[in-house]
Amino acid sequence: MKTIRLPDGTQLPGVGQGTWYLGERPGTRASELEALRWGIQNGLTLIDTAEMYGDGAAEELVGEAIAPFPRENLFLVSKVYPWNAGRGGIFRACQASLNRLGTDYLDLYLLHWRGGVPLGETVACMEELKKEGKIRRWGVSNFDLEDMRELFRAEQGKNCAVVQDLYHLGSRGVDYDLLPFLRERGIPLMAYSPLAQAGRLRRSLLESETVQTVARRHGVTSVQVLLAFVLAQEGVFAIPRTGRVGHVRENRAAADICLSPEDLALLNGAFPAPAHKVRLDMI
Q: How far apart are CA 181 and CA 134, in angstroms?
């Protein structure tokens, strides 16, 4: 499996597990626990969640799922609401996430999106959480290039370890200027919704003759081609979300697909990166 190197040298698997919408329905809890645990047992040890997801229900699910596993073998990520990201809320919010996860530290804590709290204040609080041992490192989510430039102007803002943004074959705005900026600085992009969210766009990707041609070449599914495309990008790793073991198996297998230059040329031709600045997509 592809691995990603963080700025501090930590190596992570190229595919992790997202948890948006998980933990919210009692009837699917057993399946979701099984999926998360199967993923961990098969190398998908990075798990991404957030206090927003089900108002903490996803964190509670993750806490239950990881209980049988050694904590040091996992890489846990959570995210703080923008309105909790200042001195008056972030320490309480972080501790609440830790309590729901049943752990005493996060490997990565992200600002979920920009809000009214000055970035300098959020960064200072993140650095305090590091000193307290509550988090190992911090990053941001749903940030574009100008957001990153502003972040870097804050004291210790360059300590950002990861940027998490929406990125998939049909949504490539970050390719224009954000990804080159991050690559120059050794900061990886964590791609959320790498398989595209359900709807017309996802259907158009999965039904694309180009995607299906590449899938036939490798004897895989169109979904696996979408994930393999994201993983083929320098400095990018992915956190697809699913609550079913079968889909986790599919995602894990996609991590071993090696798309050829010809495959990538076909996909880039059918779904090109933008030639100009476009608004950052987010969901």
A: 29
Q: Does 53 participate in catalysis according to the annotation?
A: yes
Distance CA 38, CA 41 (A): 5
Q: Which of 21, 53, 81, 192 is catalytic?
A: 53
Which pTM was predicted?
Answer: 0.97
Question: The tokens of 195 are what?
Answer: 């398989």
- Residue 27 neighbours by CB under 8 Å, 6+ apart: none
Q: CA-CA distances (angstroms) from residue 208 to 194, 195, 224?
A: 16, 14, 13
Other Cβ atoms within 10 Å of 177 Cβ, number: 17
- Cα(123)–Cα(151) distance, integer angstroms: 8
Residue 243 to residue 206: CA distance in whole angstroms: 20
Q: What are phi and psi of 77, to 5 degrees?
A: -120, 135
Pull the structure tokens for residue 241.
């979300």
List of the chain residues with pLDDT < 70: none
